[in-house]
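Retry 2 of 3 after timeout on previous attempt. Resubmitting structure tokens to design endpoint.
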């Protein structure tokens, strides 16, 4: 039997993070992606700061984020880049957040997901993200 714990979700609009396009983990993809959009990054780091998971993306593709935490004493977190707020379809229509893709149409977006145990990479990303928040 699986126990379902309640979760708390928070929505926010992340700030642009300067210098991400120059990082090796982004630079390799830069020619393949939309190069004229601001980038942002989010990262979850363990207590020892020796292991991290990160999400890097264009703010044009995914201008918002949801962060979820299990409402218990454990440390489970989840990040979800999103295009719109987590409202009902009716509210999204009222707010003008509906994106209609017609027959044979397409809607593109990209996200770089990664994990690292490189202390230098963790420190660099952490500093860049903190600088954006200041």
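Retry 2 succeeded. Sequence:
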């Amino acid at each position: 039997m699986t126990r379902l714990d309640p979760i708390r979700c928070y929505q926010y609009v992340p700030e642009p993070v300067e210098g991400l396009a120059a990082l090796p983990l982004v630079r390799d993809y830069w020619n393949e992606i939309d190069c004229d959009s601001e980038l942002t990054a989010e990262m979850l780091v363990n207590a020892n700061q020796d292991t991290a998971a990160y999400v890097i993306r264009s703010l044009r593709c995914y201008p918002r984020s949801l962060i979820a935490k299990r409402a218990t004493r454990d440390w489970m977190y989840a990040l979800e880049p999103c295009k719109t707020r987590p409202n009902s379809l009716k509210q999204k229509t009222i707010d003008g957040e509906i994106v209609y893709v017609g027959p044979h149409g397409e809607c593109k977006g990209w996200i770089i997901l990664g994990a690292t145990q490189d202390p230098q990479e963790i420190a660099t990303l952490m500093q860049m993200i903190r600088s954006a928040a200041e």
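Attempt log closed. The radius of gyration is 17 Å.
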